[in-house]
UniProtKB/TrEMBL annotation, chains A, B:
Gene3D superfamilies: NADH Oxidase (3.40.109.10)
EC number of the protein: 1.1.1.298
Keyword check for Flavoprotein: yes
Keyword entries, A-Z: Flavoprotein, FMN, NADP, Oxidoreductase
NCBIfam families the UniProt entry points to: PRK05365.1
InterPro entries (UniProt xref): Nitroreductase, Nitroreductase-like, Nitroreductase_HadB/RutE, RutE-like
Key word rRNA-binding present: no
GO molecular function: 3-hydroxypropionate dehydrogenase (NADP+) activity
Pfam families: Nitroreductase
SUPFAM superfamilies the UniProt entry points to: FMN-dependent nitroreductase-like
Domain Nitroreductase: 17-175
Name assigned to this protein: Malonic semialdehyde reductase
């Protein structure tokens, strides 16, 4: 059974793509991130909520503040990666729905009425979908992603975001360096994941 | 700025791919779903948690039970799609970590100690990442996905899953039929999503 996606693209995005732990010094430009966003913004979310927000940590001072909030095992690579991005969910995403979902006038009001906790769940799910599209997009740009949840996420919220934004993960981005990968860990077999009713 | 991913693949996965609302009668086979899984299983999750589980709803009797639990606007298409999948998060994913993350012996025990609520958060985030990889994989197979959260998800849990599994979404899968798409909704501009510090 062959896929419609050509094997080179399969390798680039999934089969040979790996979470990188070291990077070369080659910079990652804003133009590259813009090209990635311009591709992955089309990935679907519930009612086009599009709650993902991206904070590029570029200044050495901000980078150091972020490194201080990473788990010990993630500090060194986060300090050395050419670019580091904080991916977060905008819990007030519904403010944008008059633009994002124009054919349903009641969308913003519906989420207003739902209350913040329900919106946080919606934003969390849909921003996670978009985080995955973003990781795929980084790979589509010929770069390696190093997504990490090992961090003081509440500290990252206080240091870099605000109460309306919930950080999901931190992603190192760049060309893979020497010994960039651990050995690939096993995956579950099809029958362990997929059942039929 | 051009991406490493060729334009045909960009179109297939993101630019021309759309959430389908109608489908042809062409069946979607288990072999196709297996090929999709065999690609997207490589998408990264935290500590290789891999909590996504997929329930293929194939029997007419099960399909009817699922349709009954969908929001009104999703009933007809869920009834007619060639294949419908329930995507869920396994909150006891850590039982598999001795296989999935073999180089860290303490992984299962760490998540045992965390308690169920913390595991549910981990499973929710990582299964959502994998749900996005799955949607990309459906498109990689030359099929259209119709992901939906408009459903009685708690009812779906009771009817099709168990307490250890939290449903995230239902996905219609097939070749797009007539008038399959709504007009594409707008996306946020780069500057509305990405900030730099």
């Amino acid at each position: 059974m062959s896929l419609a996606l050509d094997p080179t693209a399969q390798d680039l995005l999934f089969r040979e793509a790996r979470t990188a732990n070291t990077f070369t010094d080659e910079p990652v430009t804003d133009e590259q991130i813009e090209a990635i966003y311009d591709l992955v913004k089309y990935g679907p979310t519930s009612m086009n909520q599009s709650p993902l927000r991206v904070t590029l940590v570029r200044s050495p001072e901000a980078r150091q503040r972020l490194v201080n909030l990473m788990s010990d095992g993630n500090k060194e690579k986060t300090g050395k990666a050419p670019l580091v991005a904080i991916l977060s969910a905008d819990n007030e995403f519904h403010e944008e729905l008059p633009t994002l979902f124009p054919h349903f006038e009641g969308a913003k009001g519906m989420f207003d009425g739902m209350g913040r906790e329900a919106r946080e769940r919606q934003a969390g799910l849909n921003a996670a979908l978009q985080a995955a599209y973003f990781i795929v997009g980084v790979r589509a740009a010929g770069l390696a992603a190093g997504p990490m949840t090992g961090a003081d996420l509440e500290g990252i919220r206080k240091e870099f975001l605000d109460d309306d934004h919930t950080p999901l993960m931190v992603v190192n981005i760049g060309k893979p360096g020497e010994n960039a990968w651990f050995p690939r860990s096993p995956r579950l077999a099809y029958d362990e994941v997929v059942t039929t009713v």
